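Page 47, continued from p. 46.
Same chain as before, 161 aa.
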Amino acid sequence: MTRARLHPLLLTAASFVALGSALFVQYVLGYEPCHLCILQRIPYAFAAVFAALAALEGDDRRLRALLLGLAALAFATDAGIAFYHFGVEKHWWESACSEGASLAKTSAGLLAKLAQGPAPPACDMPTFAPLGFSLAFLNLITALVLTELAAFWAFIAWLAE
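Result:
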């Protein structure tokens, strides 16, 4: 297997591992994700598609570089969402799904919230923190590393002869 195919396949596998890990924590370990947790999954799906297409691409190195660049952009988008989520957890800023933002301010608001049924978890209260790190922080680090790898491999593919 050539590096031209190996690098995109590694990015595809990393995307599936990240998505699989999130689903494992949700469905096997039983931790309900917040709204921002769900949003962080979407760029991984796009990155997996772009990287898989880059692996399937024939000899067109420029198209492979473009697809890897799009995968890098998807990973960077995920890193941005993860950074925002981490900031919400650290109370650097408030989100619409923060615990304080979700509290009903009046009795009418309380009745309306009760009628909606159970609310998803608040984004500023991590419920699962392996090794003391929230999943938003771990995802931020992962997405930054994958962004760097995808961008580097896109650059290498662009320059390849």
